[in-house]
Design brief:
heterodimer; A: alpha/beta; two-stranded antiparallel ribbon; globular; B: 414 residues; alpha/beta; 15 strands; 44% helix
Chain lengths: 313, 414
């Protein structure tokens, strides 16, 4: 059985990518199971999806702990623990990363001995959520790395999965990009090997724990302090950063701070809006609402290099 | 053959479409919403007949479903978790009205704490309502069960509402190959709706909810529901055979997988049972005689079928993806009650609680459960119930408790 896990952000098309790969396997005559797993169900939040494919009926279900192929559509997720990108990677795993950084650098950074392949990211695009074809590209590359899916069936799968909800030109662009990624991986065709099922003779004891009684004072699922959601840095979901140009801001503070769906724009005593980047999810509603156009979109990768301007006192 | 990759939710919608349902009262809830969205799209595009109406709650939705069923039309609806509980009062009513309908429940753990992932406490809460229950393990089974459920529900010897259960995420959002029956064959199998004496019309008043005092009539009406539910066992067998003749797939009351020569048996319901199937195959490769029994019918409970299937077996591990607080696993309790006092029953009936809130059950854990059974048989002692929960999972909880401790300290609550 082939076990494939996709990692990306909500909006990058990971569910669609898993479905394209699933359908391509299905067209090759495999039994298939594909599914997304949502957490926060929000754009930009980490999401994963998985595909199982086998020549016989599939009884395994749910989370794939040990995947034969792990695909990462957004390399900024590798450092996010909640995304679980590196879970269960062994020396037999193939890791495919869509990235501007080369494979050798990634292998060295992560100290991984497994096969690590980079699908070169389009450097002309600054917002990761604007990489419209990244999901299809990852599915296309995966199809080649698995080595059992033909170019024709990949194309047919992309067509089938997209045709209902997209205009012809969008479908065609996806096919073009998917096949381009497929061709780009020609040298590594078939490098992914099917994993083996767990064997009765070498299985690990599950290390069960007998749950003790604990009094309700400890065992009730209570949050005792106020404002604890502040501790969850949802700013990590952001790929683009709204930056206020205080020279242009006319201090009509009520507009951007009211429209912010996350309440992440505070107002200083001098009536200047100030963005809380720990919690701004990068939806850019403020950018579109700002009457004097004083809020700019800056890619996170760029913004990280700059010092942010403080709101004037 | 029209074999396609579709989700469990898609399969449920296909079931309703092929059953040519007339009326679908709807209210959204994760992870069920895709079912009503799919049906709404089809109706909107004219690919499906029938009327879909969005209600303001599940309570109203189930009321509307029951009322429509009283007027002699075929009714389908779907819900999940908190939604099923919100409509609970009306589940009992609709069953009491003795009207047929099919309700798909997409299992999801109950609050509090809140989750989106599956376990069976939601559907178990409806266990005593008079709705019959069919539990599915694959997307194919979801589609097929909706067709079967309409027949069962409308059968003159039954005429009770039927709930078809599938697990959230593990089936609802998971695509698998599903053979979508030919509409003509499906139409022939399901048949047209025989409204019997159900013909509530605006101009011909009819009351379905009479008041009875003194307990005698009440006992009669309630016990008749029970007898009809029991009658449904025989009816179900006939329909399952008929279904096999039509579509080539057979769904007995209990799916018995590699049980003929098995000494040890897993008993569990729902999609996690396919994980047990996988484990059974691996255990067999290792030379261990293990099988799986997966009841598809939970109401009526296939008591006699279990007694005959478990005769001569050494030990059983019942894996409950539910928890009755203060008692334990519900399936374990029910099975114990069914087997008690019958000759030649397994000496060991061990209880495991696993998969709560979508918690994975690994192949290794299935192996370990059989190891526990073997030890129990050797020692003659049934082990205490066990929650499938690891040291690592407890460490995770301890970290959360540490945060809570700091919070309390900071707030001055010691």
């Amino acid at each position: 059985m082939y076990r494939v896990r996709f990692h990306g952000r909500g909006g990058q098309g990971m569910k669609t990518a898993s479905r394209i790969l699933g359908t391509a396997f299905f067209l090759e005559g495999y039994e298939v199971q594909d599914a997304p797993r949502y957490g926060a169900e929000r754009r930009g939040a980490p999401i994963f999806a998985f595909v199982r494919a086998s020549r016989s009926p599939i009884n395994e279900r749910g989370i794939i702990q040990q995947a034969d192929l792990v695909i990462v559509a957004d390399d900024s997720l590798i450092a996010v623990p909640a995304a679980g990108v590196l879970t269960g990677i062994t020396n037999d795993t193939v890791l495919l990363i869509y990235s501007e950084t080369d494979a050798q650098t990634w292998s060295s950074r992560l100290n991984l001995a497994c096969t690590l392949i980079v699908l070169p990211a389009d450097q002309a695009i600054v917002d990761p959520l604007q990489h419209h074809f990244v999901g299809t590209g990852c599915a296309g590359a995966a199809a080649q790395l698995l080595g059992v899916i033909s170019r024709e069936h990949l194309q047919q799968a992309i067509e089938q999965e997209l045709v209902e909800h997209h205009r012809r030109i969008v479908v065609d662009k996806n096919i073009e990009y998917g096949l381009h990624a497929f061709d780009a991986m020609a040298a590594q065709k078939g490098c992914v090997k099917q994993g083996h099922p767990i064997n009765l003779n070498n299985y690990q004891n599950p290390d069960w724990f007998t749950l003790p009684f604990e009094a309700a004072r400890l065992a009730a699922p209570a949050i005792h302090a106020a404002l604890t959601s502040e501790k969850s840095k949802t700013g990590l979901w952001r790929t683009m950063r709204p930056v206020i140009d205080y020279q242009r801001c006319n201090r009509c503070w009520w507009v951007c701070s009211t429209f912010c769906p996350d309440g992440a724009i505070n107002v200083t005593t001098g009536n200047y809006p100030q963005i809380d980047y720990d919690h701004c999810k990068g939806c850019m509603v403020c950018v579109t609402q700002c009457p004097p156009h004083a809020i700019l979109s800056v890619p996170e990768t760029e913004a990280a290099k700059q010092k942010m301007e403080e709101a004037p006192a | 053959m029209n074999r396609k990759l579709i989700t469990g939710n898609g399969a449920a919608a296909w079931g309703a479409r092929l059953a040519m349902v007339d009326y679908i009262p709807a209210f959204p809830i994760t992870p069920q919403t895709e079912i009503i969205e799919t049906l709404a799209n089809w109706i909107d595009r004219g690919e499906m007949q029938g009327k879909l109406v969005t209600l303001e709650s599940e309570h109203s939705m189930i009321t509307a479903a029951g009322a429509a069923a009283s007027s002699g039309v075929r009714v389908f609806s779907a819900t999940s978790s908190q939604g099923l509980l919100y409509g609970m009062e009306m589940l009992y009513n609709v069953a009491g009205w003795r009207v047929p309908m099919v309700l798909v429940n997409v299992s999801r753990g109950l609050a509090a704490p809140i989750t989106l992932e599956p376990d069976h406490n939601d559907v178990m809460a409806a266990r005593d309502s008079g709705f019959l229950q069919i539990h599915c393990a694959t997307c194919q089974e979801v589609l097929d069960s909706v067709l079967l459920a309409h027949r069962l529900s409308e059968h003159e010897d039954v005429r009770l509402p039927v709930l078809v259960n599938q697990d959230g995420f593990y089936l609802s959002f998971t695509r698998e190959p599903v053979d979508i029956p030919n509409p003509t064959a499906a139409k022939q199998f399901v048949g047209s709706y025989e409204e019997e004496n159900l013909a509530f019309r605006a101009s011909t008043p009819l009351s379905h909810a009479v008041a009875v005092l003194g307990g005698g009539p009440y006992s009669y009406f309630r016990y008749e529901i029970h007898l009809a539910a029991q009658q449904a066992l025989t009816v179900y067998d006939e329909l399952a055979n008929e279904f096999r003749d039509f579509f080539g797939r057979h769904y007995p009351q209990i799916e018995a997988y590699r049980c003929d020569d098995a000494d040890y048996v897993f008993v569990m319901i729902g999609s996690f049972a396919t994980k047990a199937k996988e484990a059974v195959d691996r255990l067999r490769e290792g030379g261990w005689n293990v099988g799986l029994m997966r009841p598809r019918l939970l109401r009526p409970f296939p008591r006699d079928n279990f007694v005959s299937l478990l005769q001569g077996k050494q030990a059983v591990a019942v894996i409950d993806q539910n928890l009755s607080m203060g008692m334990g696993g519900i399936l374990h309790t029910e099975l114990a009650s069914a087997l008690y006092g019958k000759p030649d029953m397994p000496a060991v009936l061990a209880s495991f609680i696993g998969g709560l809130g979508g918690r994975d059950i690994t192949t290794q854990e299935f192996f370990e459960m059989v190891t526990v059974l073997r030890k129990a048989v050797a020692s003659g002692e049934t082990p205490p119930p066990r929650l499938l929960f690891t040291h690592n999972e407890f460490r995770e909880v301890e970290k959360l408790q540490a945060i809570a401790h700091v919070e309390r300290e900071e707030l001055g609550q010691h």
